[in-house]
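Let's study a protein:

===
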Amino acid sequence: MLDGYVSEKEQWEEIKKWWHSNGKFIAIAVLIGLAVGFGWRYWHKIEINRADNAAMIYQSILQADAQNKMATVQGGAKILMDQFAGSPYASLSAFLWAKEAVAKNDLPMALAKLQWVIQHSDQNRLKQMARIAVARILLSQNNSKAAMSTLAVVNDKQFEPLIAWVRGDIFAQEGQAKKAAAQYQIAKNGLTGFQPAQSYLNQLLAEPTK
């Protein structure tokens, strides 16, 4: 991506151009993918034997998502969010809707669904994962101050690698390459078992840090 003979300033300009074109969507997609994966494990761990209406609707949403039937995902999610807002299934379906929105580069829609989770979920970890993804979307909208403020609310140490990742993105967008690299290294160390994140963070860490 970079010519080794150009100046550091020119290198950094090239990084910013590449980041604007590619980075924000990769990062958001991976972050929301982690949230969706956590939600799937959460459901199977503590709710799989519960046969209420919300559980059955959510199961149908998972099946539709696996088959890329997005209209069914949205329809089921809307029912859960409208009629079962207090259920964790509603928040988990909102994450799936946000994932679909990111795939279509519809970040305002993704932001709206994640903010819904923050406002309605009674599961603290789901709310914190939503805040991390919201922070990354805010950054993509050039609102680094709001992104950093949103991250400051997340206090679960389990999510420190993801928080560090987004902090790194904030510093990178602000041109603070050394600070960005330090945060990316924290994220990489904490996400050793997640190959998509490892590959992407390795690419970021390979960039100049001066």
Q: What stands out?
A: Confidence is low (pLDDT under 50) at residues 1-8, 10-22. The first helix runs from residue 8 to 46. The two ends are 17 Å apart (CA to CA).
